Amino acid sequence: MSRTSVRSALRPPVRPPLRQGEFIPLIALLMALVALAIDAVLPALPAIGEALAVPRPNDLQYVIVAIFLGLGIGQILFGPLSDGIGRKPAIYAGLILFMAGCLLSMVATAFEAMIAGRILQGIGIAGPHTVIIALVRDQYEGRRMARLMSFAMAVFILVPTVAPALGQGIQWLGGWRAIFVTFLAIAVVAFAWFGLRQPETLPADRRRPFTLAAIGGAVREVVKTRAALGFILAYGCVSAPFVAYLSSAQQIFQQAYGTGALFPAYFAVLALAIGGASLANGRLVMQYGMRRIAGTAAVSVTLVSAVAWPVAYAYGGLPPLWLFMIYLSLVFLCLGLLFGNLYTLAMEPLGHVAGVGAAVVASASTIMSVPLGSIVGQSFDGTMYALIAAFAVFGAVAFAAMRWADGGRGVASPA
User: Fold this and answer.
1) Shortest CA distance to 168 belongs to which of 181, 179, 156?
2) What whole-number distance in Å separates Cα of residue 213 and Cα of residue 216?
3) b/e burial code for range 328-355 (CB count within 10 A of at least 16 → b)
4) Among 208, 217, 215, which Cα is nearest to 86's?
5) What are phi and psi of 209, to 5 degrees?
6) pTM for the whole thing?
């Protein structure tokens, strides 16, 4: 028997890919862990604050901000890591870190331990969140990939609409710590399902060494590429007030507006606005182009917010709930058009370093938006002044960054 025959005999058999009927719900579950880990905790924030003796209500926002911080750190690591060790080991590592973070938050008796657990959850969940796209791309391309991702995204979009209600129900039944028990159980199921059923999609001969030099090279490439840097700045700007909204949503609806147990319903309506716009963007972008849609959406956010601020002033900073919901629905429709297009535009000139470049784009925009969003969120004083002003200012800065990215030529390009 020849050496080649021996190597072939010893090589583990290649497992066929999962059928789409199983593959789509599996990747949707892994993708949904991010939204679940953020949104399901929102109704429990007052109980967490009381149990851990948090002195300032605004400090509870850090429970949400911390997971974004972890995401920013983890995203830049897991993309290159999966290129070096394979997709499955990278996702395993992320899920294990996420489960460890859930355990830490679940048993936390001090606020510092809770925040540490949430950061660890963010770093861990960055694994599946970042690597899933590469795993899908390993197996599909073109229209088949777009079709598959559309089905997965439809499931993913539904999660933020039900996550606060799920968290509230779990809290009623078992207390706030039971929410983290649920996260842990879901992660265990996902780990087992993924491990037993999903084959590795990156063979050893296609892997590249994981080095800090590769990450550093991608960072330098982004910094010296005007288009990429400009659209990253724009993405970070539109994300900042959204982070502020997420971190203060419980205070806005339950404290300022007194919605009580109906908070998840109001949150769901706004989540659907973003999700619906994201789905509609798939058709709109073919007709109008990414730049035109993103530019129009950024200007719309700025103008709507510029009008909303004096209206809020007329009501002492707290407009009627129905009016505030109309305002946020309009803004979130625009955000649904901005997020995907800005990310794609930032990646457009980075095709030659796509894997590491995607990690840098996601990480840089997240690390930029977290401190800015935290500043806005910490300004919450029972009125909507800071949030509305943030959408107006950051929308304008995002539009300016888009103009700069395109060399001042405007955003009417059909691209």
Assistant:
1) 179
2) 5
3) bbbbbbbbbbbbbbbbebbbebbeebeb
4) 208
5) -60, 140
6) 0.87
Pick the CATH number of 211-415 from 2.102.10.10, 1.20.1250.20, 3.30.230.30, 3.40.640.10: 1.20.1250.20
Helices 290-314 and 385-405, axial angle in degrees (round to 10): 160
Q: What is the average pLDDT score of the chain?
A: 87
**Could you give the CA distance from residue 302 to residue 372 in angstroms, rounded to a whole number?**
17
Is the pLDDT higher at 274 or at 107? 107
pLDDT at 311 over 50: yes
Among 111, 39, 11, residue whose Cα is nearest residue 270? 39
Give the type of residue at 109: T
Contact 345, 404 (CB under 8 A): no
Fold of 18-206: Growth Hormone; Chain: A; (1.20.1250)
Q: Are 153 and 336 in contact (CB under 8 A)?
A: no
Q: Are 296 and 336 in contact (CB under 8 A)?
A: no
